[in-house]
Every structure is written in structure tokens, then in C-alpha cells.
Amino acid sequence: MATTELGVALRHWRDRVSPQAVGLSTGGRRRAAGLRREELSQLAGVSADYIVRLEQGRATKPSPQIVEALARALRLTQGERAHLFRLAGLAPPGPGTVPRHITPGVHRVLDRLTGTPVAVFDAAWNQLLANPLYTALMGECHGDDLNGVRRNFLDRDSRVRHTPESMGALRAALVADLRRTSGRYPHDANLQSLIAELRRRSDHFGDLWESGAVGEHEAGRKTIDHPQVGALTLDCDVLSAVGSDLRIMVYTAQPGTEDADRLALLSVIGTQLLTG
């Protein structure tokens, strides 16, 4: 019963989202105004075959991660997202867990910033969404690399240029911010697992964690070494979405500079490279 209702709900929500609303080309004649399964698959990072099985009632136990990804891709409201979790036989995330819902308003902000690299992170620095220009600028991330704290402590492959001093300051700010998040969301199992992993694998993280500092990761000026367009020095601002504890990271260039020209060039060739 619940699985059938899940399939009906997914189809209904898919039919109401137009390709234009999520930045996709209509691609010729279409039988319906909504998203195709393949398009939802692309947006959610879930195989099209699995979406078919969910809609037909042949898949019965989607994981919380898949439900979250589908809710985000379908641009569900907070209430609709909770309903989707229940239809999948799961409890909606509680108040003691890090919010991962991207509101329709935040989606619309990103829709209007197509010429600006923008990404949305939750309070634990998990990348939830990035527009094509952000991905072209910073490179594609998958799996564990989607967490910014893990990436800065455990992965040395980054396009952002750092001195030892700037990397030290960034890491200290990230740990302090993560400690603050841990205090606000004490019942988030994924967050506690992340902290335990970082303490186990990075002595530097462990030392910073034990220091007890509490703070926030703030804006800065960063130089990104891009393999196609060269070095870009950009302002990086971190905006907060009131009520959701989301962090919206925005990169901008000073008008009339070579950095602005290179960012404009990247907006043309970078997204073509991603498409290719």
C-alpha cells in the first residue's frame, strides 16, 4: 500500500516540475510538461531504472539518502519532503539532525545566478547542490569528497591555492564551525560519524577539536588554479539561509578585471566541457 502511494506521489511530483524550472533543455517534442525519468535521474544522482522500479512499486526500501536526493531534485516543500519520507517507510529527519532540505526559495536564487559559481552546503559542510559554473570552477565531487571538512583535511587534491598560513586558518575555522554545528545538532548520527572519522584519520583535526574553539567559517578571497582558463582570484562569500542553517557559497570577480574575463570565459567553455 505505502509503496504504491510512493510511486503515485513520485510520478505526480515529477509531472509538475518543468525542465526549464531546473535548468534543463526541453529537447524537442515532449509528451508531458514534466520531467522525464532520465532527467530526474540526472538531477538526483539516482539511476533511471531505480526510479522506474520505485514508481511501479517494485522497489520497496529506498535509503534515506535516495529519498533526500529525490526530494531535492523534485524541489519539494518541507511538508512534502516529510510526506515522501513517510511514504518510503522512513521517519523524517528530526529537529536534532542537520537540516538538509533546500527550500524552493533557495532553488530560485540559484536559478537566477547562472553566471555566478554558487553551491549550497549544510551546516556540516556537505555539498548539497552546485550550479554548473561552480562545478566547472571547482571540479566535480562525488561521495565522501562532497564534504568540505573531510576534503580539506584528508584530500590534498584541490584547485584552491593555499599558503601554509591560509590552509591553517581555513582548517581551524572549519573545525570551529563543525564544533558549533555539533552542539546544535547533537542527535545527528552522520555528523558524529564524520567527526569520529576525522579524529581517527587526522591528528591535526584531533588537536584542533580538542582545543575547544567555537566559531564560523567566513568569507575570504581565494585564488583558484583552473586547468583551462588559468588562475582566477575571486571573492568567496558564505551566505546563510535563515531558518534552514544552509550555507550558500558564492564566488564573484571584481568587474573589469582579468579575473572577471576568465570567469566569463569559463561560463562558456567550462559548462561545455562538463556536458562533453
Automatic annotation (TrEMBL):
GO terms for molecular function: DNA binding. PROSITE patterns: HTH_CROC1. InterPro entries: Cro/C1-type_HTH, Lambda_DNA-bd_dom_sf, MLTR_LBD. Residues 30-81 form the HTH cro/C1-type domain. It comes from the Bacteria. SUPFAM superfamilies: lambda repressor-like DNA-binding domains. Transmembrane segments: none annotated. PANTHER family: BLL4672 PROTEIN, BLL4672 PROTEIN-RELATED. This is Helix-turn-helix domain-containing protein.
